TrEMBL record:
This is Solute carrier family 25 member 16. The keyword Chloroplast does not apply. GO terms for cellular component: mitochondrial inner membrane. Belongs to the mitochondrial carrier (TC 2.A.29) family. It comes from Cricetulus griseus (Chinese hamster). Keywords: Membrane, Mitochondrion, Mitochondrion inner membrane, Repeat, Transmembrane, Transport. One of its GO terms (biological process) is transmembrane transport.
Length: 329
C-alpha cells in the first residue's frame, strides 16, 4: 500500500494531448488508464509475490496461530517450510494476486478523481490535497476489494493438515453460507477504514515532504532530470526507494494496531475466541488484555519493517519497466 501511495505521488498522470486523426482526448485517456492499470497491476503482483512469505508469517503471528505462536519472525520463516513445505510460505498468495489488480486500478483512478475534485471544488492544494485524495482513494479501493482480502487471510492462516477451505472458491462459498451471507466478507472493515486514513495520509505527507526537502537542498546529489521531461527534476531511484520506505515505516507504526485488529476479525470463526471478538472494540480489548501492547497490538511489526524495503524496490523497478513496455512515458 505504501508502494502504491508513493507511486501515485511520484508519478502523476501526464496530460494526454489530442493527436490528429485520433479518437480524441477521451479515447486516448481511456487507453492511458488501461495501460496504467496493467503496469500497476503487474508491478503490484511482482512486489507482493516477492514478500509473500513474510506476509504469510505476519498473518500467522498477528492472530497467534497455535502452531507458531511461540516463535519469532525468523524462526517462523524456518518452521513453516519444515511443517508445510516451501509452498506453505505462499498460501493465500493466489487470492492476493486476484485482488491486487482491481485494487491498484481503483486506487489510481480514484486518486486522480479525488485530487481533481478537491483542488477544483474545495480549493485545497499542496500536500494537503494529496493527503486527502490518497486517504479517500485508499479507502475506496479497500471497500471494493475487501472480500478478496478476507479470503486471502483465511487461506494464509490455514496450516497443512488442518484445512477449513480447499481453495478460493470453496472459501467464498463457505463464508457466505456460514457467516451471514455478504456481511461475512466485511468482517473487520471498520478498523481497516480507520487504519487506512492515517496510513495513507501519513504515507503521502511523509513521502511528499522528504521529496520536496531533498530536491530543494540537495538537487544535484539526490535528483536527476526526468526521462520524459528533462526540465523536471525527480529523485534518483535509490533515493525514491529510501523515501518511500521511510514513509511506509512511519505510517505502519501509527496504524498497526488497526491492522492487527482487522486481521483477527477477518479470521472470524477460524479463531477459538471468535465470540469474544465480534466488534472492533471487543477485539482490541481482547488482544490488549491477553497479550499486551508489544506482543499483542504490535505483534509482527518488525516483520512489516523487514518486508518494506524489498517490496518497495520490486514495485518501483517493475513499474518503471512496465511504463517503458506500455509506452507510458
Amino acid at each position: 500500500m505504501a508502494a502504491a501511495a508513493a507511486l501515485a505521488a511520484a508519478d502523476p498522470a501526464p496530460a494526454v494531448p489530442q493527436a490528429a486523426g485520433s479518437g480524441g482526448p477521451a479515447s486516448r485517456r481511456d487507453l492511458y488508464w488501461l495501460r496504467s492499470f496493467l503496469a500497476g497491476g503487474i508491478a503490484g503482483c511482482c512486489a507482493k509475490t516477492t514478500v509473500a512469505p513474510l506476509d504469510r508469517v505476519k498473518v500467522l503471528l498477528q492472530a497467534h496461530n497455535h502452531h507458531y505462536k511461540h516463535l519469532g519472525v525468523l524462526s517462523a520463516l524456518r518452521a513453516v517450510p519444515q511443517k508445510e513445505g516451501y509452498l506453505g510460505l505462499y498460501k493465500g498468495n493466489g487470492a492476493m494476486m486476484i485482488r491486487i489488480f482491481p485494487y491498484g486500478a481503483i486506487q489510481f483512478m480514484a486518486f486522480e478523481h479525488y485530487k481533481t475534485f478537491i483542488t477544483t471544488k474545495l480549493g485545497v492544494s499542496g500536500h494537503v490535497h494529496r493527503l486527502m485524495a490518497g486517504s479517500m482513494a485508499g479507502m475506496t479501493a479497500v471497500i471494493c476489494t475487501y472480500p478478496l482480502d478476507v479470503v486471502r487471510v483465511r487461506l494464509a492462516f490455514q496450516v497443512k493438515g488442518e484445512h477449513t477451505y480447499s481453495g478460493i472458491i470453496h472459501a467464498f462459498k463457505t463464508i457466505y453460507a456460514k457467516e451471514g451471507g455478504f456481511l461475512g466478507f466485511y468482517r473487520g472493515l471498520m478498523p481497516t477504514i480507520l487504519g487506512m486514513a492515517p496510513y495513507a495520509g501519513v504515507s503521502f505527507f511523509t513521502f511528499g515532504t522528504l521529496k520536496s526537502v531533498g530536491l530543494s537542498y540537495a538537487p544535484t546529489l539526490l535528483g536527476r532530470p526526468s526521462s520524459d521531461n528533462p526540465n523536471v527534476l525527480v529523485l534518483k531511484t535509490h533515493i525514491n526507494l529510501l523515501c518511500g520506505g521511510v514513509a511506509g515505516a512511519i505510517a505502519q507504526t501509527i496504524s498497526y494496531p488497526f491492522d492487527v485488529t482487522r486481521r483477527r476479525m477477518q479470521l472470524g470463526t477460524v479463531l477459538p475466541e471468535f465470540e469474544k471478538c465480534l466488534t472492533m472494540r471487543e477485539t482490541m480489548k481482547y488482544v490488549y488484555g491477553h497479550h499486551g501492547i508489544r506482543k499483542g497490538l504490535y505483534r509482527g511489526l518488525s516483520l512489516n519493517y523487514i518486508r518494506c524495503i524489498p517490496s518497495q524496490a520490486v514495485a518501483f523497478t517493475t513499474y518503471e519497466l512496465m511504463k517503458q513496455f506500455f509506452h507510458l512515458n
